[in-house]
Design brief:
heterodimer; A: 114 residues; mainly beta; six-stranded mixed beta sheet; five-stranded antiparallel beta sheet; 11 strands; 54% strand; globular; B: 121 residues; elongated
Amino acid sequence: GEDVEQSLFLSVREGDSSVINCTYTDSSSTYLYWYKQEPGAGLQLLTYIFSNMDMKQDQRLTVLLNKKDKHLSLRIADTQTGDSAIYFCAERKAKTGGYNKLIFGAGTRLAVHP
Amino acid sequence: DAGVIQSPRHEVTEMGQEVTLRCKPISGHNSLFWYRQTMMRGLELLIYFNNNVPIDDSGMPEDRFSAKMPNASFSTLKIQPSEPRDSAVYFCASSDFRRDSRGHYSNQPQHFGDGTRLSIL
């Protein structure tokens, strides 16, 4: 199938690290993305990783990719209250002739408490 | 830079009425996507255009839904007649999806608008 799976909820204390996990199904996916959605807003691209990479770091964000297990994670260091949002994992399907379709997970709601 | 612009932001109407949602993609982008987001189903891709041509409309729920892209800077999603189960947040997204000089499709993420919150009474 085309399921991208994520845990639905994560609660962390302010200042701690958050780790949001995702599993995907298509081993030929070329790019994997993390989007953030705040209340009443659209999805904002946070970061992405190309499938030939294992890790990508961007300021407080670290993305780890395990292609063998089709597992993607997003680590947020020093989590702040402003990081409270829903985080979506997405894979870009690779199809012949080029096809720009993303498959999204259901989203992980991150709650940051003092 | 202007992002993807959707209108209206909110729409409340009675069932049976026609609803038209509008989207202006980012200038220069050649791919446009309409999504629907609900608590029950999450984020669903409804239709995808490339160079103003519908490529995949397999996510369109039924004949009551139609989408057009008359030019590169404008798209509409129409529901006629509307039903209460159509209540959702509808997102439009765009990206620049083309081959580079080596013939590869490089990373061109989708950029989302702020959505239209639709309530059908």
